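Input:
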Amino acid sequence: MEAVSQQIPLEHFLVLSAILFSIGVYGVLTRRNAVLILMSVELMLNAASINMVAFAAYASPEAFTGIIFAIFIITIAAAEVGLALAIILRIFRNRGTANVDEVNALKW
Amino acid sequence: MTVAQLIFYVIAALAVAGGLGVVLARNTVYAALFLILALLAVAGIYILLASEFLALVQVLIYAGAITVLLLFGLMLTRVDDLEESMVGAQWPLAAVASALLMGLLITTVATSDWPGDADGMITRIPFETLGQALFRQWAVPFEIASLVLLIALVGAIVLTHDEEGDVEETK
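Output:
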């Protein structure tokens, strides 16, 4: 393991991740197409990964748990996207829409 | 300002621009392309954090596979790009909520005392060390992750598979 000097404080990465996460939250709250909501969720997952990798690089370089976590996040994200798209496709075939506002069969 | 800092600001601006494009684009395909931009920028951030392996995985799996899958999803569920069907009526409330969340997070980051050297020294983890940790220390979570992938993909096949009965009804 070699040490690299970047002259970028840890806070910069955390602020970038906070901005990306908030953009993702806005997308999840406003988008009505289910696939676009999924894209916003991907943004939020990436923001979390940036956080983990930044902490791994700055705070615990000997354990690098954050990098391992980021690898698992990417794996779970791949599984999540595959399954979510299958569900969206099924909803689209049955109801003719991918708009989450119109899929309200379970709404009381 | 050093070269690394300049590169960081450029990449961060690209990531934020891509993210804004994802949530604001009127055309769904443009949103997917903006997502590719944001994901590639995040790969650049990983390189700045000396995690080349994660950057490669990010480009291959996120920017490559997941975005193509999302584009397929868009293509198969396409009805129209009507503007009123893109964004819900609650968008001002959502903008206020996410702005408040961003303010809260940034304030917390700015006022907290973080570990790590002030001169920004980080450690580059070699591929070999990472692989050894993944297959020894993290072997059980690794196997569980592969099981989760298998179950998710079998589930996806089962969900999208057309049974004999509902072929006529859908065509």
